[in-house]
Amino acid sequence: MNHLRYLFLKHTVLILLTFLFIYKGFGQKIDKEAPLGFDQERIGIVRGKIDTISYFSTTVDTTRRAFVYTPPSYSASNDYPVLYLLHGIGGDEEEWLKGGTPHIILDNLYADEKVEPMIVVMPNGRAMKEDSAMGNIMDPDKVEAFATFERDLLDDLIPFIEENYPVLADRESRALAGLSMGGGQSLNFGLGNLSEFAYVGAFSPAPNTKEPEILVPDPEETSEMLKVLWISCGDEDRLIPFSERTHTYLEQQEVPHIYYVEPGGHDFKVWKNGLYMFSTLLFKPVDPSIFKKYTLN
Ligand code: FER
After folding, report:
1. How do strand 49-57 and strand 62-70 relate by DSSP bridges?
2. Ligand 1 near 204 CB (within 6 A)
3. Which end of the chain is more exposed for a tag (fewer CB within 10 A), N or C?
């Protein structure tokens, strides 16, 4: 009898351990920051491709340029989710590719099987006829054009991508993220159009970020609709108050989100790390209980 009880206990413990092991295996492992070499071109891996596209913007009444990164495994017979990735006040559609090398970061992430296959679209977020970053980038007309881009994105660019690429066109297959002015745009347009986006990321969001009460008028709805809400900033960035006030409000209102403050300023070191971390959370089941573990402090 004792022997039987022993066997029973032993098996119960073994089964429990097995479940614990499987659970831990399935449980999301998180990188606290991008590992060394994450942005260095690796040899011998399959790479994604970068297309240049032109789409007609009814918003600006002109043809506009954007870049599209398709993943290494890309095949037109699959359907892909899409990340729209936005630049800052001093940049244009080339800024991410030149300064942030998202194609290299993502190629490496694919090689390590850490991201879901997705298409990344890098538009020009200054929705006006003369949309270059030349001259006075703080010119009120140019700054206003970053707000106008909401209509260009929703009415012109997204429909163009959905007509011309094999993409999934539901909100859970759409992410919006950006750096600085693009971070503010992502919060403004993403949280303002919950029917269109389920993933929103802001890296060092700029003063164009709407006030928290305007961004999130209905915390319950925002909590329910969003899969991932990411805000990161360098601790030496003078724009950090815009992240901080948003985070504080979200915390007060119990809206699940990641607030990730890292050593650094207003630069691509922070934004590349942000892209690395955010992209690993996209288009897959995410356990919100990991959100609080992200903070480096
Ligand atoms: C400002 C300071 C910074 C501002 C915008 C920025 C519109 C944007 C910075 C960036 O995109 O890097 O006062 O006002």
Report:
1. antiparallel
2. no
3. N
For the stretch 76-107, pLDDT in tens is 999 999 999 999 999 999 999 999 999 999 99
State the DSSP H helix or E strand holding residue 70, giving kind and residue range, or none if neither: strand 62-70
Same domain? For 10 and 129 the reply is no
The strand pair at 119-123 and 49-57 is best described as unpaired
Domain count of the chain? Answer: 2
Same domain, 1 and 65: no
Q: Ligand 1: which residue has its CA nearest to atom 13?
A: 207
In this structure, the answer to whether residues 68 and 180 fall within a common structural domain is: yes
Closest by Cα among 6, 91, 18 to 271: 91
> What ranges in the chain are assigned the alpha helix state H?
2-26, 95, 102-111, 140-151, 158-164, 181-192, 212-215, 219-225, 240-252, 268-279
Residue 264 CA to ligand 1 center (angstroms) comes to 17
Q: What is the pLDDT of residues 10-44, one digit of tens each?
A: 776 666 655 554 444 445 667 789 999 999 999 99
The reply to whether 18 and 146 lie within a common domain is no
Distance from residue 284's CA to the centre of ligand 1 (Å):
32
Question: Cβ-count burial of 74 within 10 angstroms (0-12 exposed, 13-18 middle, 19+ buried)?
Answer: middle
How far apart, in whole angstroms, are the C-alpha atoms of residue 76 and residue 12?
49
Residue of 95, 142, 180 to mutate, ligand 1, most atoms within 8 A of C-beta: 180
Structural domain harbouring 15: 1-30
Do residue 189 and residue 89 come from a single domain? Answer: yes
pTM: 0.91
193-198 contact pairs (CB < 8 A, 24+): 193/150, 193/154, 194/221, 194/222, 194/225, 194/226, 195/171, 196/154, 196/158, 196/171, 197/171, 198/171, 198/172, 198/173, 198/174, 198/225, 198/226, 198/227, 198/228
